[in-house]
């Protein structure tokens, strides 16, 4: 009988230890969930800022094209190629143009869910048109 009491006491201790571990894991899961929500909100905010900046850049590019200021646009094109190269280095499995030069690589995707398409696609097209016109 003392053996069954000892095994019962062991089971009680194990159950208590499992309850503590379960509580700890639930707290950790809740913390991770809150952190993930915060990161998702920040990402969404960043996407909005990037969209706004992209729109302003495209507008500025149109103004520069109409006024003949192509030097700055050449610098922007070089910067875009640098950004694309860095993206390809950081995310090689996601990069669409792995193995191609930065000139041939399409810009990295911004998001597949929100339908915004490629980063600066319109800007790149305008810069390429300028390049062809020269």
Automatic annotation (TrEMBL):
InterPro entries: Apc_fam, APC_N, APC_N_sf. One of its GO terms (biological process) is negative regulation of canonical Wnt signaling pathway. Residues 24-43, 96-121 are annotated as: Disordered. Residues 6-57 form the Adenomatous polyposis coli N-terminal dimerisation domain. GO terms for molecular function: beta-catenin binding; gamma-catenin binding; microtubule binding. GO terms for cellular component: beta-catenin destruction complex; catenin complex; cytoplasmic microtubule. PANTHER family: ADENOMATOUS POLYPOSIS COLI PROTEIN 2, ADENOMATOUS POLYPOSIS COLI PROTEIN FAMILY. This is APCL protein. It comes from Geococcyx californianus (Greater roadrunner). The gene is Apc2.
């Amino acid at each position: 009988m003392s053996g069954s009491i000892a095994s019962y006491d062991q089971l009680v201790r194990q159950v208590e230890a499992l309850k503590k571990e379960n509580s700890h894991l639930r707290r950790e899961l809740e913390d991770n969930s809150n952190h993930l929500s915060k990161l998702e909100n920040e990402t969404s905010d960043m996407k909005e800022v990037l969209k706004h900046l992209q729109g302003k850049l495209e507008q500025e590019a149109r103004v520069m094209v109409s006024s003949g200021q192509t030097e700055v646009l050449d610098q922007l094109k070089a910067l875009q190629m640098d950004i694309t190269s860095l993206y390809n280095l950081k995310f090689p499995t996601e990069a669409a143009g792995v193995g191609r030069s930065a000139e041939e690589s399409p810009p990295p995707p911004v998001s597949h869910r929100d339908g915004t398409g490629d980063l600066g696609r319109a800007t790149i097209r305008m810069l390429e048109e300028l390049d062809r016109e020269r």
